[in-house]
Write a structure and sequence with these properties.
single chain, 52 residues, mainly alpha, 2 helices, elongated, transmembrane helix, membrane, transmembrane
Length: 52
Amino acid sequence: MYGWIWRHLPGGAAAKAVAAVALAIMAGAVLWYVVFPWLEPQVPLDRVTVGS
């Protein structure tokens, strides 16, 4: 997958590296601000099942 992305990015190696870092940052931002807030109410992470 990473090879496919690298081959399809335009420019030389430096431009590809900058574009790859920018894509990784954008993917992280989408996960952090869109996917995780949507998913958080649906996943019972704060429910304690062991204890008194």
